[in-house]
Amino acid sequence: MRQFKRLASRPLQRRLALSYFGAFAVVIVVFAIAVRLSFTSIIEQENAARLATLARAGTAAIELTPSGYTVDSRSLGAFVVRTATEGLQWFDVNKRLRATRGRAPQLFVPPAIGRAQLTTESGALDTYTVVIADARGKVLGYVRAGETIDEVQRGRAALDLGLVFGSIVAIVAATIGGSVLASEALAQREESYERLREFTADASHELRTPLAALATTAGLALREAPDLPQPTHRRLLAIASLTDQMNRLVDDLLILARAGRSLEREMFVVPVDSLLERVNGTQAPLAAKKSLELQVHPCQPIQVFGNPDQLERIVNNIVDNAIRYTAPGGSVDVSCASDHTHLRIVVRDTGIGIPSEFRERIFDRFWRGDYARTGAGGTGLGLAIARALARRHGGDIAVASEAGRGSTFTLTLPLRPPSLA
């Protein structure tokens, strides 16, 4: 039984694990992208600031002369040029190269004021150019600082690799953690549900004895004292009727509580035509009482596997629901069809129909919409029991309806025995 429950909960566990995986994956990917963008932005700002400082340091290596300036490329103040990746170029006012230092001097393209990126045969360069001017503001030339971006690109590639690898590890760890959390959540859910189911079953079972005693007492009182005053007689009849309703409710709750059990010991061959004949015999008097036309069409020789009483209960509940919510003069039609794998029993009625927002809620326990409360009776468990038993047999119930134009319920059952693992 526990193995059966674990198998039944695996789809939900997979969905929860996938939800955890999706949420963690989105968070981790967004975080990785944010880190990458932040890192790139910081590096860009640092490179721009260093190139600007290097270019300005290049102006410290010049000495003004009456004809312009001269360059002492060894003097850059306190600034150190990394000659393997950086360099300086000095240009005169006509943008002709005057002096070089470091790697960047291999580039002989005329300078452009400010920051620019240039491509050479040896790779791409990031450059920054400043103006050399005298005290009166006269332009004497230009200083261009350059830096190869190979090192920056290698740093970015290393960061990307680290982020990808780290994200994969984090996502895998999050998936494992999500699976553990999903398993624990389901274990707690199943434990709570099992306790509730056992309580419902025990309470329903225990209620049978006092209800049976109450019904017997009311029945004996009615038979042994036929000359009771009318008010007392009516009260005893009401007690007997309410006791009968309570018995039906207890039976329904007991069926729902046991709907999750395995079918292993309840598997029988059930001829569908005989099942529909019994349903017709049960429901025909109820339909006649409401002046409804009930048609149960003959079914070709088909058989399904399961609990015969429960399979009959499923169809009876669907047909009973159709009769309850169909006005006098209407009709209820029951037919069946099959393919190679499934049996379909279709119940059509000309009743009040179901608004679209209530089509799934009609299968909830004790739920009855305000639109359907008047004169229908019942406890609101009929369709809930039908769907629970249908799913217990590996099938399901679907509904198509339009308010005011009737409903169509389709019961689908597998032709082969459902898995008992």
Main sheet strand line-up: 4-3-7-6-5
Class inferred from helices and paired strands = alpha+beta
Give the overall pLDDT as a whole number.
Answer: 78
Q: Main sheet?
A: 5 strands, antiparallel
**N to C succession of SSEs:** HEEEEEEEHHEHEEHEEHEE
Query: What is the CATH third-level topology name of one domain?
Result: Heat Shock Protein 90
- Secondary-structure arrangement, i.e. CATH architecture of one domain: 2-Layer Sandwich
> What is the assigned CATH homologous superfamily of one domain?
Histidine kinase-like ATPase, C-terminal domain
CATH class of one domain: Alpha Beta
Overall geometry = rod-shaped
**How far apart are the termini?**
9 Å
Give the number of helices: 6
What's the gyration radius in Å?
A: 42 Å
Q: What low-confidence regions span 5 or more consecutive residues with pLDDT below 50?
A: 1-8
Number of strands: 14
Question: Helix proportion of residues, in percent?
Answer: 40-55%
Give the DSSP E fraction (strand runs of 2 or more residues): 15-25%
Account of the protein in words:
The chain has helices spanning 2-58, 150-224, 230-257, 272-289, 308-324, 382-392, and strands at 62-65, 68-71, 86-92, 97-102, 114-120, 123-133, 139-148, 268-271, 293-296, 303-306, 331-338, 342-349, 396-401, 407-414. The protein is α+β, with helices and mostly antiparallel strands. It has a domain at 268-414: Heat Shock Protein 90, CATH 3.30.565.10. The strands form four sheets. Strands 4-3-7-6-5 form a five-stranded antiparallel beta sheet. A hairpin with a 5-residue loop joins strand 13 (396-401) and strand 14. Helix 2 (150-224) packs antiparallel against helix 3. The chain is rod-shaped, with a radius of gyration of 42 Å.
